[in-house]
Amino acid sequence: xxxxxxxxxxxxxxxxxxxxxxxxxxxxxxxxxxxxxxxxxxxxxxxxxxxxxxxxxxxxxxxxxxxxxxxxxxxxxxxxxxxxxxxxxxxxxxxxxxxxxxxxxxxxxxxxxxxxxxxxxxxxxxxxxxxxxxxxxxxxxxxxxxxxxxxxxxxxxxxxxxxxxxxxxxxxxxxxxxxxxxxxxxxxxxxxxxxxxxxxxxxxxxxxxxxxxxxxxxxxxxxxxxxxxxxxxxxxxxxxxxxxxxxxxxxxxxxxxxxxxxxxxxxxxxxxxxxxxxxxxxxxxxxxxxxxxxxxxxxxxxxxxxxxxxxxxxxxxxxxxxxxxxxxxxxxxxxxxxxxxxxxxxxxxxxxxxxxxxxxxxxxxxxxxxxxxxxxxxxxxxxxxxxxxxxxxxxxxxxxxxxxxxxxxxxxxxxxxxxxxxxxxxxxxxxxxxxxxxxxxxxxxxxxxxxx
Length: 452
Fold this sequence. Notes:
It is a single chain. The chain is of the alpha/beta class and 452 residues long. 32% of the residues lie in helices and 20% in strands. Strands 1, 2, 3, 4, 5, 16, 17 and 18 form an eight-stranded mixed beta sheet that branches. The chain has a six-stranded mixed beta sheet with strand order 8-11-12-13-14-15. It is globular.
């Protein structure tokens, strides 16, 4: 191949990459972030739905003919019946409509990925194996089109988890509206993520390793995790007595976990992984949250005894093993609730573009025995409690952020629509690229006389 041909190929590749980048740029959302709330507001004549107070509760807390007052982004009053003095308030009459807390998605990688085919828009994974110092909020794209699509489904908050490696970094809690990633951030760090290795060998046509080899690798990985935390504890203890010891940012990032001020989010789906992770955490004295939890119902008594929460990665998936019941994952939330385990339900697809389906994941659990109130709690108050932000979000209560949605009905029903949303007292634009395309082609067929 001569030099001229090589130059043409290089130019062509560069042009294609440039076009991809241009496409990614033009995919950014055009919706405008509203200013902070300036006028006190009152939502009146509505039906308010709050999740159960206790995580093993079953019934929604429903207030008919409800009113909600909020000012400067905070709820200042909730009640029912007529309001006599609303001078100075902007009044929103929600007669015939329903108010729910803003939904909370997690674990998710929303904002870290825009287009999978364009590497420049994919910030999900770091390359190193241990990077506990990485925080998800730093890499979130506030102009992501996927954020606007997601919030149109009533999701106002996301728990964003970075990936890659065994110790993947720190998840962040974000609101789904803001000019910058600093504006989006509610909590920079919720803890540290650890991906737990398989404990037992897996036999499948995709595996090329023997059972003995798999088991040896699992023991090696477990030992490596244990040694890493052992070294971190030793460094923290040594630096307390001798501040001249060189700073280690990675070990320092584990200090809150080691002190008990933050949890470890342990990614584990199989029962043997969950049991191993719980035993290890109790030996080391760490608080943990199980993320994934496909087989968590099999370990429900253990999880309840040690008060270990579970973040379930979605309902719409196949059974984990051939001998499992076809509806095993659908019934997992109710089995956890009956056992007294705090749990939340996420989307679990691993693809942020499908995060908008979160409420339907909880709806599926509701169709398989989970009471309506518990299903609502699994996508509102429970994830807020697990993330440690329940003093701000998860329910519509006095003193909390004025973050809620106004709907035509239960958001877990496909027939319900989210009409209006408020985030920290600001009315949020629910339009997005998909709704723009819908309006465009409706107009096309209206002009053709095919629809009214």
